[in-house]
Amino acid sequence: MSDSIKYTRGIIVACVYVLSMLTSKVADAQLVSLQSMYYQNQYIANPAMAGLAQGLNLNLGYQQQWTTMPGSPKSKNFTADYNSGNNVGLGLNVSSDNAGLINRTRVMGTYAYHLPLNGKDDKLNFGLSLGLNDTYIDYTKVNGDQGDVAVQDFNQRSAYVDGDFGISYTGQKFTVQATLPNLKTLFFSNENDNNLEVDRATFFTALSYKIHADNGISNFTIEPKVAFRGVKGFDDILDVGALMTMPDYNINVGGMYHSNKSITVNFGVLLRPMDIMVAYSNNVGPLRVYAANTFEFGVKFKVFRK
Question: What domains can be seen in the chain, in order of their start residue?
């Protein structure tokens, strides 16, 4: 092998190594989950929360890095969950994630059962979601040979059936929940799953407690929450935060610290029948060198409520 060929191959290997390092950091940026899943729309993280209250809930969410760099991660989500007044909740969860060339679309239908316990507000909830998951590379964004065999092989994988299972206890003040997402890769994993993006959720648990207060002038509620979630290929993440709701002023404000070295603050406006939330996540650790901060917007419509 000539020296020129060795030199060229060395450059290619070095470039591939650098790109792989940068790609892993871009994946890190996606570890900031949708903030709305902690309070505004818990159905995103747990199918057991679908149709928890009587009526129809429609939620729209959008999250994007605070940057104009092409290919920066974006997440879009739509959910609808309904309860006619009995123990059954039904839901639809549609999500779309884009990061660089990779796109993932997930469409899930949900059945939830809410078992009343001693008190009127105490329930044991079970939820199961089933649907399709499709991950593919967008040919239009490939800056190079669109006939690359690796790209074709990736896109030859068909959409597959996936599911999530969740359970929760919800009371007037206390809520505890756990979720096993991506059931296909958990119970029916095969060698092709190694090609799936590494930053998918593996489990989610959360614990929260509502504290009501009234100072004689106004009343408010503070709900501290601790969540613990797993992400394939990365360290498990601990989330600690709280939300303060002031119904007399139709607003709420909250914040959360994530153990992957990011902090999120959020502000909400509570209108009838619509709630609006904005959130901003600031990367305070080494991640800030590679990934910009994240902005999120969410809106919730509540209809058919008594």
Answer: 3-303 (2.40.160.40)
